Amino acid sequence: MTPQDIDQAPEPNLPLFAQNDMQDLRSRWEKVQIGFVDEPRTAVVQADELVANAIKRLTEVFGTERHKLEAEWDKTDNVSTEDLRVALRRYRSFFDRLLTV
Predict the structure, then answer these.
(1) Other CB atoms closer than 10 Å to residue 32's CB: what's the count?
(2) Which pLDDT score is estimated for 30?
(3) Average pLDDT per block of 10 residues along the chain, 101 residues long
(4) SS3 content of the chain, % helix, strand, coil (to 5)
């Protein structure tokens, strides 16, 4: 099997966060930024908390996706080459999304 065989119909790179989660994070960031004018120290503390929360959520998203990927190919010893090819494509998509962070 060549890389070209695996590359047929690439997996889409889906957003890392659901649309409503992304909007919430951006809204919270705007509030932090606006708050800097009156309370710079508080704004920086809030920014730190927001970034930590986003990283935690990102870790949860990737953990869930990785678990799903493992479950697809590691279910039995009788996994076909086609199943493994599809799994490798999904891992590639997953990896590409991870590198865009």
Answers:
(1) 19
(2) 97
(3) 52 75 94 97 97 92 85 77 86 82 67
(4) 75, 0, 25
Query: What's the CA dihedral at 79, 82, 83, 89 to 10 degrees?
Result: 140
- Its pTM stands at 0.68
Query: Nearest to residue 86, comparing CAs of 98, 73, 75?
Result: 73
Q: How far is residue 5 CA from its own chain's centroid?
A: 26
Instruction: Give the type of residue at 65.
Output: E
Residue type, 31: K
Q: Where are the domains of the chain?
A: 19-99
Contacts of 22 (CB under 8 A, 6+ apart): 15
C-alpha to C-alpha distances, 66 to 55, 71, 97, nearest whole angstrom: 16, 9, 12
Distance CA 28, CA 46 (A): 9
